Amino acid sequence: MTIGVAILGSTGSIGQSTLDVVSRHPDRFHVAALSARNSVESIYEQCVRFSPQTVAMSNEAAAKDLQHRVAGLGIEVLSGEQGIKSIACGPAESIVNGIVGAAGLQPVITAAKAGKRQLIANKEPLVMLGEYIVDLAREYGSLLLPVDSEHNAIFQCLPRTGTFEKLGSPRISNEMGVRKILLTGSGGPLRTIDLDTMHEVTPEQAIAHPNWDMGRKISVDSATMMNKALELIEVCRLFDVSHRQVEIVIHPQSIIHSMVEYLDGSVIAQMGRPDMRIPIANALGWPERIESGVDAPVFSELAGFDFAQPDPVRFPSLRLAREVAERGGTAPTVMNAANEIAVEAFLNYQIRFDELVQMVETAIENVPIDDQVDLERSLKADSETRAFCQSMLHGRSASSPLG
Description:
The chain is α/β, with parallel strands linked by helices. It is 44% helix and 15% strand. It contains 16 helices and eleven strands. The strands form two sheets. The protein has a seven-stranded parallel beta sheet with strand order 4-3-2-1-5-6-7, with helices on both faces. Strands 9-8-10-11 form a four-stranded mixed beta sheet, with helices on one face. Strand 1, helix 1 and strand 2 form a beta-alpha-beta unit. It is globular.
């Protein structure tokens, strides 16, 4: 009997990569369910090829359109947030969460309460409510497997423990002898650009990542290294470590995806081509190794590996992340929500590139931070932050936006 896989955000880059890996193992997996926001044409093609039992569209008009298209295929079409949640707690054994942003929070919680094996590709839920989600996973027997390439790399560099399945997430214990985690990042497409020209950077420049094929939002996050800032907090939540145990290292080649340093001076690194099918295959097949469709690097063809410390002036998001990690409470939720609004505004030519992190920092300074965090407090902080950032945008003069 094959394992049912539900893919949330199936038309995005994570979803498409997951479908590619699943298609290579028809004897092991089948697509049980898919979800998307409003990409009807793309998800219809996936329905024809993979024959899922259920599909959910968060946009209700798109759901109606898809319903007409799949008539006669025996596919149930759901809509709205409730439809996504129904898939998250449905019959599929494994849930791949590739929904970008805070929208992925509720499905993660729903799947945790349903005791699902979860492949977490979106960092935002763990940034917003990591401890709460990990506790839920332990309580209900849900297994949290990291798919984000850096977190999956850390996971692969850790020793196997017999207690992992009981813990919900791969926590680092004292017995493992871990000194620190080395979280690598390429530095994005603007790593060497003149700082005096940062205000002139266009969305087209910011999304032109030299190594990874990612969505627009994540590509902008890579350009500001806000993705690494969010990943720093995710590392702390997922592996139960302090931000002081995490060092961020610039590695432009994107071959070493992260490293773990041990007390004896050993450093174990996970290497591979910059292709998300590798961490997806690792998490889908765990504890076994399965084919991903990606060849290993040919080391004789590599010019070399470069490493550097990130420039704090160029990447202020990293300093901000440590302050937020130290502060805790709902501060990470505020940072994440403000960044989502800022990135959208930048892509719409409403703010300059150099104003992205400024908007996030302004939100953190002005939105009330609750020292205690739970689902209700996190959702409230998220809502208040988005309202505050929108008010900032509305208050700008007509001459301010780019374009």
